[in-house]
Amino acid sequence: MTDCLFCRMLNKEIPADVVYEDDDVLAFNDINPQAPVHVLIIPRIHIATLNDLQAKHAEVMGKLLLAAKEVAKQKGLSEGGYRTVINCNADAGQMVFHIHLHLLGGRQMDWPPG
Ligand code: 5GP
Ligand code: ZN
User: Is residue 111 part of a domain?
Assistant: First the structure.
């Protein structure tokens, strides 16, 4: 989608600070990090929100989690721990409507989240 920020990053029209990529996903540092490690992991296909997921997306969504595991390992977070988050729509504070997994770590996380 030409008007989607993350699609434009995938198309290299906007630069991204990439930390991991493969055939299915791209992972890059968040521009406004909420933790010492804050990486966004996105599918190469445009899916707006969790509400738009279909059965055919099951594999790529699994790939997001596998990428999170890899990035966490790369960042030295595997043992200490980290958090993964997908915000959906307004009440969760979703701002970018290309589905993305937040990987947050490097500090103690609070629960419940804000
Ligand atoms: P959401 O609120 O939709 O779950 O998360 C969107 C995330 O995208 C936010 O954490 C925000 O900081 C990040 N973000 C917004 N614009 C940009 C950008 O241009 N580059 C990068 N790297 N991250 C962005
Ligand atoms: Zn998109």
Answer: no
Is residue 57 part of the annotated active site? The answer reads: no
Please tell me which residue in 46, 57, 98, 100 is annotated as part of the active site: 100
CA angle 82, 106, 67 (to 5 degrees): 45
Q: Domain for residue 113, yes or no?
A: no
Q: What is the pLDDT of residues 38-86, one digit of tens each?
A: 999 999 999 999 999 999 999 999 999 999 999 999 999 999 999 999 9
CATH number at residue 80: 3.30.428.10
pTM over 0.85: yes
Does 114 map to a domain?
no
Three-state SS annotation for 19-86:
EEECCCEEEEECCCCCCCEEEEEEECCCCCCHHHCCHHHHHHHHHHHHHHHHHHHHCCCCCCCEEEEC
Does residue 24 form part of some domain?
yes
Give me the domain span that covers residue 36: 5-105
Q: How far is ligand 1, taken at its centre, from the CA of residue 55, in Å?
A: 26
